[in-house]
Each structure stands twice: as C-alpha cells, then as structure tokens.
Write a structure and sequence with these properties.
The chain is of the alpha+beta class. It folds into three domains: 136 residues, Periplasmic binding protein-like II (D-Maltodextrin-Binding Protein, domain 2), CATH 3.40.190.10; 88 residues, Periplasmic binding protein-like II (D-Maltodextrin-Binding Protein, domain 2); 66 residues, Alpha-Beta Plaits, CATH 3.30.70. The protein has a seven-stranded mixed sheet with strand order 2-3-4-1-5-12-6, sandwiched between helices. Helix 3 crosses helix 4. The radius of gyration is 24 Å and the shape is globular. The chain starts with 12 loop residues before the first strand and ends in a 6-residue tail after the last strand. It binds adenosine-5'-triphosphate (ATP) and zinc ion (ZN). The site of zinc ion (ZN) has 3 residues, from loops. The site of adenosine-5'-triphosphate has 15 residues, from helix 3. Belongs to the ATP phosphoribosyltransferase family. Long subfamily. Pathway: Amino-acid biosynthesis; L-histidine biosynthesis; L-histidine from 5-phospho-alpha-D-ribose 1-diphosphate: step 1/9. Its EC number is 2.4.2.17. This is ATP phosphoribosyltransferase.
C-alpha cells in the first residue's frame, strides 16, 4: 500500500479491530451497539458492513497503528499502550504524526507499571540510574526516563518480561499490570505507574477529505451515545416538593431531572438519568429522604 493511500478517496470506512484477544469482543460489542452489522468473510479476516458502509478488518492489535499510518484502515480500536508506544517509535525515527487517539472507550483498562524485586526498598526513580529495565514498551519507557532525568538501559523483550529479573536479564521491569498476581508470582512488586491505559479509538491526525468524514462523524456520535449511557439508568420516583432539594443531593451523578406535579402541587413525579451504579443502598437512602415508588429503568439508546 502506498504511503499516500491515506489521502486516497474512498467511499467506505474501514475499522481495524483485534482479531482475538482481550479487546476483540468488547470492540465488536461497542460497534454493534452503535448500529453496525456485518457479513463475515470465510477466512474471518474481513467483515463487510451491511447496515452502513463501514467494514472491519480483524488483525493483531500491534498492527493497528501501522495499518492506519499506511492508509489500509481509517480507524482502529487498540490499547493506548500500543498506540503511544508506536507513536513514540515513529517520532524517534523522525516520521510525522499520522495517527492519534480520538476517544477513550472505557474497557481494556490496565497500567504500564514499573516493578522491582520484592526485597528492594523503593526510594524513587533516581534508584533506577544505571539499571537494566526489561520491557516490551521501550519508547514509552525511554520517554518517561527522559522526563525523570534518569539514565537507565531498556532491555527490549517481546514476552515473559516478568521473569527477566529472575533470569538475570534485567534488574527491574516495566510491564502491563491489571491484577498484580503475575508480578507477585515472580517476586516483584509494582512501585510506579508510567501510563494508565485502556482501549481507544485511534484515527488519522488529519481529518478525512471525502465521504469518510461524514461516516466517521456519524459513528462517533453513535459511540458517544453508547459510551455515555453505558452505566446509566433512568431513575423514576415521586417525592414531596419540599424533599426534592435534599433528594437531589443524594444524586450527584444525575442529569437535571424532569419534574411534574401530581396530587395537586405538593407531590412531584421525577425522572432523572443517573450515571453511577444504582445500588439497593442508594435506593434505601432515597426512600429515607422521602422518595416513593422508586423505579430503575435500563437505558437502551440515547441521541443528544
Ligand atoms: P495479539 O495476538 O492481537 O497481538 P496480544 O497478546 O498482544 O494479542 P492481548 O493480551 O489480548 O494482546 O492484549 C490486548 C490489549 O489489552 C493490551 O495491549 C492492553 O491494552 C489490554 N490489556 C488489558 N489488561 C491487560 C493485561 N492484564 N495484560 C495485557 N494487556 C492488557
Ligand atoms: Zn499484540
């Protein structure tokens, strides 16, 4: 694919997602909730968009930024860790910025952390001076070391980073962590987070110059709608007018409610979109503060 392919005129949008792995199911679910449907090719590498001219390419996550850079794909769903690492690699090689993060998507959360042997007493980044740090993310690590003004060596490994100190390949590691159990099993402890990561929608640094701009816009608006209501519920209840201010204090995560008077003017019926979890405990607190007939309803779709 030619390096100018990104500027080539196309009338369908192509999104790269992970073929199989931690991000593949949630990425598909998000796109399906945004109204996309597909017909899958026999080799399961390409999905032809049926409801909209938006196709999917199923690939390894590490290939996604490069596919956008080469113009093979227009958008991609990938971990911020991968995107920032590869952006750093391009910058280091003097290449221009061609892709960037468009949206964070709220799944695939993990941290790129520095972990040291259990028996170290951690005193801060300066302790890393002259040490060997095993990682799969050398650009992210070197960028961070530069910011800290610390000189250390990045030992680049493609897998099993956490075992490197035990093998004598490195003194400490810089790796993705979600639970910490793997670190503990290797007698390591996390001491510092270098990057908070999650899945992101990656897109070109420059806007599209053809019909893909409208398609991307439509998709973004739908995705924003899905993301906004992901944990949201519609809360309905009745309350005496003079209890409403107190009740709204218990709902700091609610949008301004719709209210209408019933029973003359002393009782109000309210409905509010709440963005946090609506637990039994919260409902009981609301009831104690005067709410009656509390009802929690799922929200399926929203268009702002
Ligand atoms: P591929 O075959 O596509 O290269 P992979 O083995 O590189 O797959 P996964 O392990 O599925 O990829 O991880 C994909 C992304 O999931 C990571 O880049 C990261 O953003 C995110 N992630 C979330 N939690 C973790 C974790 N505990 N360990 C590794 N990655 C995680
Ligand atoms: Zn990968």
């Amino acid at each position: 694919m030619s390096p100018t392919a990104n500027s080539a005129v196309r009338d369908r949008l192509r999104i790269a997602i992970q073929k199989s792995g931690r991000l593949s199911e949630p990425a598909r679910a998000l796109l399906a909730s945004s109204g996309l449907s597909w017909r899958e090719s026999r080799d399961k590498l390409f999905c032809y968009g049926e409801s909209l001219p938006v196709d999917l390419l199923l690939v390894r996550d590490d290939d996604i930024p490069g596919l956008i850079a080469d113009g093979v794909c227009d958008l991609g769903i990938v971990g911020r860790n991968v995107l920032v690492e590869q952006a750093g690699e391009r910058a280091e090689a003097g290449k221009p910025e061609v892709f960037r993060e468009w949206r964070s998507l709220g799944f695939g959360a993990c941290k790129l952390s520095l972990a040291v042997p259990d028996d170290w007493t951690w005193e801060g980044p300066s302790q890393l001076a002259g040490k060997r740090i095993a990682t799969t993310y050398p650009n992210l690590l070197r960028g961070w070391l530069r910011e800290q003004g610390v000189q250390a060596e990045a030992v680049v490994l493609n897998g099993s980073v956490e075992i490197a100190p035990r093998l004598g390949q490195a003194d400490v590691i810089c790796d993705l962590v979600s639970s910490g159990a793997t670190l503990a099993a290797n007698q390591l402890k996390p001491v510092l987070d270098i990057l908070q990561s999650e899945a992101v929608l990656a897109g070109p640094a420059q806007p599209f110059g053809d019909v893909r701009a409208e398609l991307a816009d439509l998709l973004l608006r739908r995705m924003d709608g899905v993301l906004r209501i992901r944990d949201s519920k519609l809360l309905m209840f009745q309350a005496p007018r003079d209890a409403v201010d107190q009740l709204m204090l218990l709902l700091p995560d609610a949008e301004p409610p719709t209210m209408c008077a019933i029973d003359g003017a002393d009782t109000l019926s309210l409905q509010a979109l709440c963005h946090g979890a609506m637990t039994w405990q919260r409902l009981e607190d609301l009831k104690r503060a005067g709410a009656r007939g509390l009802m929690v309803l799922p929200v399926e779709r929203m268009l702002a």
